Amino acid sequence: MKSDNHYPAGTVVSHWLDSLILQGNPLGDSTRRRIDIYVPYAQSGLGLPLLVDLVGFLAGGPTHTNWKNFGENLPARLDRLIATGELPPVVVALPDCFTCLGGNQYINSAGTGRWADFLLEEVVPFVEGKLGCGGIGKRGVFGKSSGGYGAITHALLYPHFWAAAACHSGDMGFEQLMLPEFPGVLRALTAHNNDIKAWLTDFYSKPKQKGSDLHILMTLAMCATYDPDPAAFMGIRLPVDMLTCEIIPPRWHNFLRWDPLNIAAEHANGLKQLKSLFIDCGTKDQYNLLYGARRLHRLLEQKGIAHVYEEFNDDHSSVDYRMDRSLPVLVQALLK
After folding, report:
1. What is the distance between the alpha carbons of residues 149 and 54, in angstroms, rounded to a whole number?
2. Residue 136: what are its φ and ψ, rounded to 5°?
3. What is the DSSP code string of 149-160?
4. pTM above 0.90, yes or no
5. CATH code for 11-173+260-334?
6. Alpha-carbon torsion angle 139, 144, 145, 150, nearest 10
7. pLDDT of 21-65, one tens digit each?
């Protein structure tokens, strides 16, 4: 049933940021970026903590402010949580980080652009400068799927910047997540003489993209993100043999360097600086992300790093309701 929306409504204002950091980005994506900013009812934003929402692949931040059938968009969810006292007032920024390859992992990549720097050096200062919110110790990041990947990776690599993070069903455990995708990619490319440019040209020309095509696109985007080849079309090269699907060790090694499990093995102690870290995953996750989440949970326990870890009886899709659990945890910690 759709929310009755009788709670006092906060405001959502769309701003535009002309990025200097994204100028000359390898994919030629627009440098003019929309940032939707939610401010609670009867608040100006001044002095409030700041959360940044990193959305999943195939989306941009402003999709979370769109009207939603049979449920709440993010502003409506925030209105309800704040009005019922479950969530302290908070400013939430929703930046558009969409790319022509369908999305973003929110890291600096020679193949897709300096998206971590865009968030750290442009988006957050822009929002904090306009509203007087956030600041050191009062800013957090959250997201699901690719957004969850961005949240945990930012927490690991930039704990001096973020004070709290929530990773919902985030990409990790690349052996279980990504390797099963490559046979399907090779079958799709076979119809285009193993030519990635030809496949993408055909994809972009279609009036309608099939779900299976979107999965191929997502895998190609990961190739451009984690192991880009500057000489290749859109920086895309595969970490497997095009004929046999055998792993090419140097190429796959570059992927694994960006697996949060491997980043955590080196940088996890930095998480001790965080005020709060929330991690969850569905027990029926169809992308096998549960096993990576369990491995990360075990590693953090072994290193004595405080965090909230939860599993829930659901799959990877339509799990925005999990924000009812994570956002209060983050914001209450940011206020301490």
Report:
1. 9
2. -55, 130
3. HHHHHHHHH-TT
4. yes
5. 3.40.50.1820
6. 0
7. 999 999 999 999 999 999 999 999 999 999 999 999 999 999 999
Residue 33 token pair: 């970026």
* Strands, E assignment, 134-217: 139-144, 164-168
Over residues 149-164, mean pLDDT: 98
Delimit the CATH 3.40.50.1820 region(s) of the chain. 11-173+260-334
Alpha carbons 239 and 252: distance in angstroms, whole number: 5
Query: What phi and psi, each to the nearest 5 degrees, are found at residue 312?
Result: -135, 155
* Tokens matching residue 328: 């209060």
- DSSP letters of 41-103? TT---TT--EEEEE--TT--GGGGGS--TTS--HHHHHHHHHHTTSS---EEEEE----TTS-
Helix, strand or coil, per DSSP, at residue 122: helix
> Which range has the worst mean pLDDT, 76-80, 208-212, 233-237?
208-212
Distance CA 70, CA 218 (A): 27
User: Mean pLDDT, the chain, as a whole number?
Assistant: 97
Residue 35, beta-bridge partner list: 15, 95
